[in-house]
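User: Structure tokens for this complex, please. No commentary.
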Amino acid sequence: MATAAPSLPLRPTSSAAPPFRVLPGFNLTLGYTLGYLSLIVLIPLAAVFLKTAELTLAEFWNVVTAPRVVASYKLSFGMSLLAAAINAVFGLMLAWALVRYSFPGKKLIDALVDLPFALPTAVAGISLTALYAKNGWLGQFLEPLGIQVAFKPLGVLVALVFIGLPFVVRTVQPILEDLDTELEEAATSLGAQRWQTFRHVILPIVFPALLTGFALAFARAVGEYGSVIFIAGNIPMVSEITPLMIITKLEQYDYTGATAIATVMLILSFALLLIINGLQAWTAKRTGRDR
Amino acid sequence: MKFSPIRRSLLALVLAPALAAGFVGSAQAQTTLLNVSYDPTRELYQEFNPQFAKHWKSQTGEDVTIKQSHGGAGKQARAVIDGLEADVVTLALAYDIDAIAEKTGKIPTDWQKRLAHNSSPYTSTIVFLVRKGNPKGIKDWGDLVKPGVEVITPNPKTSGGARWNYLAAWGYALKQPGGNEQTAQAFVTQLLKHVPVLDSGARGSTNTFVQRGIGDVLLAWENEAFLSINELGPDKFEIVVPSISILAEPPVTVVDGVAKKRGTEKVAQAYLEYLYSPVGQKLAAKHYYRPVKPEHADPADVARFPKVDLITIEDLGGWQAAQKEHFADGGVFDQIYAR
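Assistant:
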């Protein structure tokens, strides 16, 4: 018996053999994915890097570390992170209200959430500026209190919060809809306080989605130009966003300088998104919801 | 030859665009000109184009349709550099056309000598738009740096028009008794400290000043100041003309590379020359540009333009030098803000 065992036909374990798939079409879909991604995303991005490569390393470094440009990174990335964080908190609340409660006009509010997606960004910028300028509806009350929003860095934040809101609400909403109220009831019957239920039952479930929403809102905010440009004031070293620096380079016909700054933005954004994705995978694994 | 249904539909798919292109092609047998211009000339060319078409028809019997494209001067120049087939360009400053010449070779580098008056059939200057009654008592450049005065002007790094504003201020300071490069830089530094918002373009600045109610003075091209007053009513704003300003020359030229290819050289040349004709000059003055031949314009229109002591861009060394000294990265404008 023991000697016969090695001669038994074993299943092929060689890694060279393709794994068996129930559904056909793997190669086709992979081909499409790569082809489509290359055409839509990778080729334009490669063009940015290629154009940048016309600069020597020293020139590149000079362009991307100029004081005005560095000040703009701080403003753009700082305000984008802050805006995404604000949206994460209030977007979660909004999604919760939309999922858990029914009230008159709920459908309308649900539709309103998507409006920042649909509105041309320049329109958003002009309306926000009109609202927050010192003669605007809100600005006339804020200005006497010493709070200036329009044409200050705070205005940038307001615009970025506006355009980022739908990302958080729309990523968190489906998760909340799937969340059984039984879970909360069970937690309560086991003696959990409301805060404990939120902290230990609800938050771990929605956290990965919340992070996705945060990442999307952040990514959108970093690249935003249209809505911000009207409300920012655009004073060098104070309220210039990085996309404006790129436009400034283009206005001087400095294409390589523009792509150099774009390259830095791409790398920084990509690194931050990688970190957020990693964080998301880690929390998902930790809470046993590995997908 | 027989086609299977699939073959036939494929054939139709391939042929349909080709046929459509054929139709469009035949429709375009008539001559068209594309005039790539900047923002505030829209109304001028809307009125000028049909006049020229009529003139061309009576001269040659040919029909010509002129298409206009308007936008920020820098953006428009970049569109031409990137391949927009403009037969003629009519932009805000020579520097933008220089850029087209340099980057594409479609325009010879000495283009500005090809037509009279530096190829600028109409000019303008920089004036102040103030609120009605001039509450801050602004009369000249020196008043702009008084405490409590806020000045609105676009960013000269992103707006061609704003470079004229900046250079006008620079020129004023140079012309003061004892004026030199240092005092000019000191004056412009002072002036920029009074600017709370630097919009990316002239239209944005006008909006900030007029709609948002920010600032006491808007630095603007004379023609745009007139347009603003026209649109918003003379009961809200008035124009103050400073003692010294700059001669703003928005030049025009044929894009030879494109016109040669499209066979429109003659009509493009005639189009630009017609701007210098009595008809063109009259229309320019009507649309608030200062005509280079005021004798052809309506005297009532010309009377709107007060006499100003004008410095020219040549006094400041020409566009290439001015750009390099003031607006290039690390130039005077950057130094002022680098603190």
